[in-house]
Amino acid sequence: MRVLTQRDVIVELARATGKWLVYVNLDNWAEDWPPDVAEQTQLGVPWLDLSEGNLQPLMDGWALAICDDEDEAVGVFSQVYGDDHANAGVERPGLRERFYACTISPSGDYVDENT
């Protein structure tokens, strides 16, 4: 038997697919979601599809983007509003949250994070 953590699964997925991944943590509110949780998440993570009531990523507390190459991963990663944006003075009107994100290389190494 082999027990895997979430991190183990992400590393194994990157290695198995040979793809770049972008991980985003969506567990900002624990169990007390604001009424506009989907809107806040879309403002902070614009590539995440929460249309038509798709709240599964929020219930899971995380999501992954599987990217074809490093350039795509960097582009996807840079869209996630995190501490690096806020600390640089970049604002997104109406957004009250910051979202942790990181990139994972095809070898399973964590490369960049937005904190």
Give a nutshell description of this structure:
By secondary structure, this protein is of the alpha+beta class. The chain is built from five helices and four strands; from the N terminus they run H-E-H-H-E-H-H-E-E.
Fraction in helix: 25-40%
Helices, by number, come to 5
Q: Tell me the number of structural domains.
A: 1
Sketch the major β-sheet: 4 strands, antiparallel
Low-pLDDT stretches are none
Strand order in space, largest sheet:
2-1-3-4
The overall strand count is 4
Mean pLDDT equals 90
Distance between the termini: 35 Å
Q: Rounded to an integer, what's the Rg over CA atoms?
A: 14 Å
> Helices and strands, in N-to-C order?
HEHHEHHEE
Instruction: Describe the global form.
Output: globular
Task: Explain how this protein is built.
With 115 residues, this protein is an alpha+beta fold. It has one domain. The chain contains 5 helices and 4 strands; from the N terminus they run H-E-H-H-E-H-H-E-E. The protein has helices spanning 6-17, 37-44, 56-60, 70-78, 83-87, and strands at residues 20-25, 62-67, 101-104, 110-113. The protein has a 4-stranded antiparallel beta sheet. A hairpin with a 5-residue loop joins strand 3 and strand 4 (110-113). The protein is globular and about 40 Å long. It starts with 5 loop residues before the first helix and ends with a strand. The mean pLDDT is 90.
Strand-helix topology:
Layout: H1 6-17, E1 20-25, H2 37-44, H3 56-60, E2 62-67, H4 70-78, H5 83-87, E3 101-104, E4 110-113
Antiparallel strand pairs: 1-2, 1-3, 3-4
